[in-house]
Design a protein that fits this description.
This protein is mainly beta. The chain is about 10% helix and about 40% strand. The chain has a six-stranded antiparallel β-sheet, with no helix packed on it. The protein has a five-stranded antiparallel β-sheet with strand order 9-8-11-6-13, with no helix packed on it. A two-stranded antiparallel sheet has the order 3-4. A hairpin with a 6-residue loop joins strand 1 and strand 2. The radius of gyration is 16 Å and the shape is globular.
């Protein structure tokens, strides 16, 4: 597996080795010892995952920006069918990159994974007819601890790849989320 940093150094892109032939392909998506080595070599502390989730979203669905207030989760995200534009926003108030964002297209085709550490809000826009997303978390989901940041917060300025003339499909909580407190 290859690890590279993004425009926000703590958000990491992982590319697995894929072994394929005319029958199909095989790839290892997670091995604890490999992650520990990769993260250590790159100067990071390797995450420990305690929960794995899967979601499906239809085209134009925008989920986010979500975070947990007192029990922040790191997430390792990958797409097993379809394509999304995945976004991480730094909400660590003491960070030099507070309020900045990074986005990455993740798809079943490119097989990339994005690691978003604790202290970031996370969201994505479904670009294909539907997308199935699997993500590992470093802490357990706690609904009472959930927070939201407006997906269209102009101070953050995320350049979502929206289809012209089509509004994203949002949940009520995402449609009513507040701007990032500065």
């Amino acid at each position: 597996m290859q690890l590279t940093t993004t425009a926000i150094a703590d958000v990491l892109l992982l590319e697995p080795k894929v072994f394929g032939d005319e029958r199909g392909f095989f790839m290892e998506t997670y091995r604890e010892s490999e992650f520990k080595s990769l993260f250590t070599e790159a100067g990071f502390i390797a995450p420990r995952f305690v929960q794995e989730n899967m979601s499906r979203s239809a085209k134009h669905v925008l989920r986010g920006l979500h975070f947990q207030k007192t029990k922040p989760q790191g997430k390792l995200i990958r797409v097993v069918s379809g394509e999304i534009f995945d976004v991480a926003v730094d909400i660590r108030q003491d960070s030099a990159t507070f309020g900045q964002w990074v986005g990455q297209i993740l798809s079943a085709e490119n097989r990339l994974q994005l690691y978003i550490p604790p202290g970031f809000a996370h969201g994505f826009l479904t670009l294909s007819d539907y997308a199935d997303i699997i993500y590992k978390c470093t802490d357990y989901y706690a609904p009472e601890d959930e927070g939201h940041v407006a997906w269209n917060d102009t101070d953050i300025g995320i350049d979502w790849p929206l289809t012209k003339g089509v509004m994203p499909v949002l949940s009520d909580k995402d449609a009513n989320a507040a701007k990032l407190a500065r």
